[in-house]
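Example 3.
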Amino acid sequence: MIYQGKQKIWSEYQKDIPADGWFYVRSCIRQNFFPASEKYFLAICRDLLGHDIFETEHHTTCGGIAYHSDTIPQETAMTIVARQFALMTEAGYKNLVTSCITSFGNYTEILETWREFPELEARIRENLWKATRREFDKPEYVAHASDLVYKYRNEIAERAHFRLVDKHTGKPLRIVEHIGCHYSKMFPHKGIGGAEYPCVLSGMVESWGGEVVDYPERRHCCGFGFRQYLVKANRGYSVSNTHKKFESMEPYHPDAIVTNCPGCPYFLDRWQYVISEQTGKTYGRDGFGIPVLTYEELAGLVLGYDPWDLGLQLHQVAAEPLLDKLGVEYDPDAKYLGVNKENLMKPELPSVLKCF
Amino acid sequence: MDSRIILIIGGGVAGMEAAKQLRLLGHRPVIVEKSDHLGGHVAAWHKLFPDMMSASSLIEKLSESLDGVTVYLKTHVSNMNRLKDGYNVTLSNGEGLQCAAVLIASGFRLFDASKKEEYGYGVYDHVITNADLEYWFNTGEDERVPDNPGTVAFVHCVGSRDLKAGNPQCSKVCCMTATKQAMEMKERFPGADVWCFYMDLRLFGKKYEDFYINAQRDYGVHFVRGRVSEVSEDIDGRVVLKAEDTLAGRQVKLKTDLLVLMSGMLCNEDTSSLASMVHADVDSDGFMRSRDNIYRINESNKAGIFFAGACTGTKTVPETVAEARAAALDIHNYLNGNA
């Protein structure tokens, strides 16, 4: 691997990311999968680092998940997005940052479509006016939340409690980065690092002391692929894709996987359980799986937040081996206590995949 | 002005052959070449299809016939002005000359394979181009070529017939060059499995079809009809490529010790600036525009400006040599009032 070759490509795919003045739109599914991630995006970027990021309780789904599942036409998704833009305009913001990769792809695709077909934009403006009496300005910048964390990565590194280093060996942790398909595969110039060698997550990992694993199936789908999973008959295809990725990364013995998509961490995490039950195989050491984190969770760990506050107890794969390598202190008895010490109840443990 | 002086821009095969012919016809050709050597791309090549003629022997033969031809190396044309009966030319070395006609033989450049990011040129350790492999054939120097490869793969049409790369034209020589290089690799490494991934095989020339059949039958080269979609590297540093075999209707995943990308031919960077100096036209593919593409390929739309070789489009070496001879005769006739 010629690292300078990647750097050359990265230099051609850098995008302008203002530091402040962002209108934040959440994902419609992440709060169920990884409930603390969006909370800690704001806790880190807005409250800790002091950047101007605003959100309103009035925003809704962007419609992207329905559009990509072929259940609504694109004009409907466009009108939903137009309403989000109207909320941003009413709040006095000009830059839009999305929590979800599919939302990011959806917003980007719609803006590009309107650029090519202005008459369609005019029709959507009319639809929105008829439905809600709202008007909107288009955002000056659209970013994914991982773009902002990438931009702030060195600020986070300066405040780090832990580096991505194995405290027992002193060596950098080996991290697999997995980019959501809708981040830059549709529009390579909209993603940091482009489509083939994105550096939005690898940049974070390297800034925080880790080592990025590049393996043959790095670009392959996580297994979600919308209809691969949403159509029940296709779920074998979904898990086989995930299986292919784990078989490919196995020789590198990664310590963790970091992702920037709602679906990817969910499927890479949960399918490890299914694969272990079906094949008896696990991919971490000593019967554990490979922990799969969102970039907010990884940033939170680096900054010293409590892993259970970050929601790591809601992962299928045990995070404890990673916490031990990092040197993060945690209370095993508090793992299944939620907000205000509410008992979440310990789940039934898998028969193969080792968990606590 | 000496009406016998002909400026030839470019000292590749076309420029050298045209200079020889113009000299034989009694003219005084002057070659201006921007690099430090004559012979162009062919000078860096190893063997030429379909006869496997040594490229260096061709360049030697062309060089031998340049007695009496003025050659400027590491020089380019800075400016050209139309005179009543010729052109006033300023060179980058500060010299000036007046010539009766100009032959543009500025050739082509190879597509930068790193622009096809999915193929990993410049990123993965064992990915090279057709030009890199020719250099290795000639010198044996390239650490990216393993000592005893068990598998070698070639990808055709890299940056050719590719709208996303901005190059819709076929490069014409890549199918045959890949076949030739595949056979050369089999000669050096008889135990190696050699694969060619192609879109179409365009084997239009004399002996080309025989050459291709020979590669399959006698050398055991595998040809797969399907484009490579992505390339990566495994933990041992081997190249992993994915493609679709569109004839068998199945996906192919291949681990190879060396991947060779057949970089296509593009117009030279200086084509538009040369054209603008003499108000000649540039075609939609970026190459020089001939007066027509059937009968007057060597002629521009401006009096006294002629073309030869790959400055007007992708060409094989035999086509380039033939065009150079034709251009020399066209210039001779033009200067003698017989055009």
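The CA atoms of residues 193 and 307 of chain B lie 42 Å apart. The radius of gyration of chain B is 21 Å.
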